[in-house]
Amino acid sequence: MRFSLRSSLSTLSVLATLSKQAKSSSCSYVDGNYYCDETSVVVYNNVGFSSSYNDVTAMDESSCSCSTSSTSFSGTLSPFDEELSVHIRGPIQLKQFGVYYPSASTSYKKREVDEEEPCEETITTRKHAHKRDVAVEYVEVTATVYVNANGETITTSITPQTTTTAAGEQNVASPVEHEASAVSSSYTVVSTVLSGTTTAGASSTSTTTSATSTASTVAGAWERVAYYTPGSATNVTFMNHQGGSGSGVWSTCFGNSLSYASSDGKSCASSSTVLDDVTLTSDYEVVMFSADECSGQNGDCGYYREGIPAFHGFGGKYKIFVFEFLMPSDTDGSNSNQDMPAIWLLNAKIPRTEQYGSCSCWESGCGEMDLFEILSAGSNDLISHIHDGQGSGSEDYFQRPTSSSMKAAVIFNGEDGSIHIVEVSDDFGSTLSEDTVNGWLEQTGSTVSL
C-alpha cells in the first residue's frame, strides 16, 4: 500500500464506476470512493497482461538517485505471479496467516529464529497521506516449470531463475519460480496455458458485477508452505520499517529500510523474531516474507538496498494466502492513518528497495493488490483494489471484523487468470482439499473484469 496521490482515475475506471452506479441505487460516495453493496466475495478476472516496468538496479546514496532498467513480463496473472510480500496495518490483530501451493513432494523446513534483542533507538519511518483513486501502468514474470497430475513437465518460459538456499540448509521450493533442473521439486498443477493477455495500450473495459461463477476448478490438494499463529511461525519472516537501529539501514536520501520486527511489531529487532499475540495500533505496519534468504545482491532476488535483511516473497501463478484477523476500532490517537486498518500485497521488490519513496518499481506498475482496506477513518467497509497497468477495484465491500475474527482466502488461479478474495469458515490445516478450494472458487459475489 502506497500513501501518496499519484494520478486521477483513468477514463476506463471512471466508466466502470458509472456503470456500477447505474446498476445500484445503494451506492454512496465517501472521501473519493464508491461503496455499493456488502459482499463476501470479490473476484478479479483477466488479471494478466503483457508489458514492462522499471526495475531498480542501483540506489546511489551520494546523489540520492536510482538507476533502473526495463523488465518485461507476460502471463495469465502477471505481474502478480511474481514474488509478493504481505503487509498488514493497524489497528489489526492477526490470528492466523498461511500460504499454500499445489501439493508436491517438496518439504519445508522451519527456520529457527534467534532470541529478540532490543533496539538501541527508534527512527521514525516516513509516512504519506493516502488516496485510493489511482491506476498505475506497466508490469514481469519469470519462467515457471510445473509437473502436472500425469507427471508431464509443463513450462511457461520467459526468464528462468533458480532457487538458492544457504549452505547446509534444506532446499525450499518456495516463493520463487524454478528452472527445468528443479522439476523434481516443482508444484503440481493442471495446466499452465497462457490466455487472455492484453498487450500494452490495448483497449479494455473494467466493470464490477455480481454474477454466477465461471471460475476454472483445480485438481488435487494444496500443501501449506508457510504458517503463523501468535508466537509461532514456519517459513515466515516478520519485518517493519525501522531500519537503522538494530537491523537494516537509514540514510538521508532513502530514509528507513526494512528491518526485522520485534515481537510487538512496533519496534525493531536485530534478528528474525516471531510476532506475538498483539494488536497493532493505527499506522503501525508489519511486512511478511518467507524465511528463504536472498542469495546476495543481483542474485535470485535481483537488486535490493544494501545493508537490509533480504528475503524472498511468495511467487507463482498458483498460490493461496489465508488470513484470520480482527480490526478493532482505535480512536485514541492522531496518526495519518488513524483507525484505517489494511491488508495488502506488494511486488516484493518494492519494500526491498524503497516502499515509501520513488526508488522502486511501484510507479511503473510492478504490482500492488489491496485485499482488505479501510479508506475513511472509522469506516467499517473494507474494499479491494488492484494497481498495475489494468488497475481497478470493487465498489462492493467486506464488513470489517471489529469484535470477532474473520477468515479469508485469496486464491491465485493461474488456470484462468483470476484472483478470488473469499470470506470463508473452513479450518486452515496443513493441507487444503481439492473440494475445499473448488468450493471457494465457486462462491459468487462481486466480479471485476480487467
From TrEMBL:
GO terms for cellular component: fungal-type cell wall. It comes from the Eukaryota. Residues 1-24 form the signal peptide. It catalyses: Hydrolysis of (1->3)-beta-D-glucosidic linkages in (1->3)-beta-D-glucans. GO terms for biological process: cell wall organization. It is an enzyme of class 3 (hydrolase). Keywords: Cell wall biogenesis/degradation, Glycosidase, Hydrolase, Signal. Residues 220-440 form the Cell wall protein YJL171C/Tos1 C-terminal domain. Its EC number is 3.2.1.39. Pfam families: YJL171C_Tos1_C, YJL171C_Tos1_N. Residues 42-102 form the Cell wall protein YJL171C/Tos1 N-terminal domain. GO terms for molecular function: glucan endo-1,3-beta-D-glucosidase activity. Belongs to the PGA52 family. This is glucan endo-1,3-beta-D-glucosidase. It comes from Kazachstania africana (strain ATCC 22294 / BCRC 22015 / CBS 2517 / CECT 1963 / NBRC 1671 / NRRL Y-8276).
